[in-house]
Amino acid sequence: MRDLTSEELMRFTKMHGLGNDYVFVNTFEQKSPSDPAQLAVAISDRHFGIGGDGLILIMPSERADARMRMFNADGSEGEMCGNGVRCVAKYLFNHGLARKSQVTIETGRGVLALDLEVHEGRVQRVRVDMGRPIFEPSQIPTLLAGEPPVEKPLRLGDQELGVTALSMGNPHAVIYVDDVAAFPLESRGPQIERHPAFPRRVNVHIVQVLGTREVRMRTWERGSGITLACGTGACAVCVAGVLTRRTERSILAHLPGGDLELAWPDDHGPVFMTGPATEVFSGDWPD
Description:
The protein is of the alpha+beta class. Helix content is 15%, strand content 42%.
């Protein structure tokens, strides 16, 4: 068997935000993969690939320090990923592509500004201006009534759930329950994701209120299934808590992979998310 040349190998870095893990490819220094959707499926496989919730390309941008393209584990392209964008910001700083305390990243929902908490020359946490939530049903998109739909009934067989829907650049459905551990997310998650009320599918978040400033949540992520964390989803939960009068404008969200700090200071402004990003390892993938 012949050895692969450097031209036939793709350099990657595995990173995660609270266990929401992705394979990152730096296309500043190598060519972009010809079929990123197919690559995302192969590379995300936890038995035969590297393993992860998807693939993220770190690309040059004419509008920002970098551009991010995100592909779910099923190959579908997502508009945004809150945990992923924090990892991109950390990568830009730690790998010398943008050595400054604030970076800008072009995403599917526009250019986002990220503030870096740096300790001894390495990024520890990242605060992201996630932009304003989107409430227009046609832009979420959803067929549920209301702008935004707040605790609207969604029927699944003989069960009816109250759903609050909004977009953070990608669609989210927030459902409040008494006990997130008891909710059958494995079976209900895919049913809600593909419900006719959501023409482009939806990310599903089950939320338990622990106090006016604290929640616990679990996520079924569109195109990836159950994940340990979802940054845009945590932002949606922060907004939904205000809309339903369950929580205050600043909350701590406990996700299976760790904690995120969220804030929505006013009705007309952006949501801010603060959390860690972790680099796990780098390697070469035969392209």
